[in-house]
């Protein structure tokens, strides 16, 4: 089996010694080529090259951002049009995920340990047994562009927090769970809580306006705070369509019960008259009357006024 391992040398929770151990372990199991990512978007380019050269597997040692780039490189052909997705095993390498970031949401949602060494052990078992899981993905489309996401996207307040944390990372600070929480609390004081901008529409979906913040989920949990999962859309999964939780109020009275609920292990949906909720949807659109922040798998993508979200079933095989 030919495999390409993509390594993010700046991954938050790994070091050179750990990377060397993991590379040796994988190299003993497969014919391994190792590539380091050097710039934003490089993982997508390397993954597309691996697909074009007929590699059987692409492995990723990195965080959710590197994984997202890799997935897009595997799914998007050179001309930018999505390939046929009726048979995910045809003409597309399988994916191996080894968590190396701060949150590692996609890896943990797949059931992998949050430790890269432990995850490598589980991945090696999957390789020996050819144990694969087919997962669906989300796709966001805007202004002639499209990008797949593995676990979540968002518009509004949560994307504003992602933007703020990316700014801090640009100054050399790490994106720890504590930093996200502290940034979210500080940013809450500055965000617009009086003028909602967004409306949710879709075929067979009653239009819902007055939305301040929208979380779009391809699986659950949405993220983690340390070891605690955060689950605003507990019914979301890789085997169903997309879910959405929208907030029509940003006051503490509205937010407090929602936050308490999504930090529990409950399978029940959050409740409240100021919530907009969708489950297992094939497609819907968020339109805004002014540009709002937009993020995808924790990667800030600027401000947008219209984004369509589409479910892509059976998109990818993961060895897990």
Written overview of the protein:
This protein is of the alpha+beta class and 320 residues long. The protein is built from eight helices and 16 strands. Strands 5, 6, 7, 8, 9, 10, 13, 14, 15 and 16 form a ten-stranded antiparallel beta sheet that branches. A four-stranded parallel beta sheet has the order 2-1-3-4, with helices on both faces. The chain has a two-stranded antiparallel sheet with strand order 11-12. Strand 15 and strand 16 (299-319) form a beta hairpin. Helix 2 runs parallel beside helix 3 (64-75). The longest helix has 14 residues, at 116-129. The two termini are 16 Å apart.
Which key phrases capture this entry?
320 residues, alpha+beta, 10-stranded antiparallel beta sheet, 8 helices, 28% helix, 36% strand
Sheet-strand content, in percent, reads 35-45%
The biggest beta sheet, please? 10 strands, antiparallel
Structural class: alpha+beta
Give the end-to-end Cα distance, rounded to a whole number of Å: 16 Å
Q: What ranges have pLDDT less than 50 throughout 5 or more consecutive residues?
A: none
Number of helices: 8
Radius of gyration: 19 Å
Per DSSP E runs of 2 or more residues, the count of β-strands stands at 16
Outline, from the CA principal axes? Answer: globular
Give the helix level as a range of percent. 25-40%
Mean pLDDT score: 92
Order of helices and strands: EHEHEHEHHEEEHHEEEEEEHEEE
């Amino acid at each position: 089996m030919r495999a390409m391992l993509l390594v993010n040398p700046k991954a938050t929770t790994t070091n050179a010694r750990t990377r060397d151990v993991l590379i040796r372990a994988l190299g003993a199991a497969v014919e391994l080529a190792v590539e380091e990512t050097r710039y934003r978007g490089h993982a997508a380019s390397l993954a597309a090259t691996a697909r074009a050269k007929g590699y059987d597997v692409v492995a990723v040692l990195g965080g959710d951002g590197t994984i997202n780039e890799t997935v897009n490189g595997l799914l998007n052909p050179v001309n930018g049009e999505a390939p046929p997705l009726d048979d995910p095993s045809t003409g597309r390498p399988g994916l191996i995920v080894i968590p190396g970031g701060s949150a590692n949401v996609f890896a943990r949602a797949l059931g992998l340990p949050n430790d890269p060494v432990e995850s490598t052990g589980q991945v090696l078992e999957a390789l020996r047994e050819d144990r694969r899981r087919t997962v669906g993905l989300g796709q966001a489309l805007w202004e002639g562009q499209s990008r797949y996401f593995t676990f979540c996207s968002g518009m509004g307040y949560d994307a504003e927090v992602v933007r703020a944390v990316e700014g801090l990372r640009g100054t050399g600070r790490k994106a720890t769970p504590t930093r996200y929480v502290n940034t979210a609390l500080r940013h809450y004081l500055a965000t617009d809580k009086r003028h909602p901008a967004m409306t949710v529409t879709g075929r067979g979906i009653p239009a819902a306006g007055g939305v301040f913040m929208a979380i779009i989920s391809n699986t659950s949990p949405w993220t983690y705070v340390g070891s605690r999962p955060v689950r605003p859309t507990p019914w979301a999964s890789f085997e169903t369509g997309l879910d959405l939780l929208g907030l029509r109020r940003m006051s503490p009275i509205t937010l407090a019960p929602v936050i308490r609920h999504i930090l529990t292990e409950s399978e029940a949906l959050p409740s409240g008259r100021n919530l907009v909720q969708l489950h297992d949807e094939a497609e819907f659109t968020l339109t805004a009357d002014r540009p709002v922040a937009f993020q995808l798998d924790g990667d800030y993508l600027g401000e947008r006024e219209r984004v369509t979200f589409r479910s892509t079933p059976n998109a990818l095989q993961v060895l897990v």
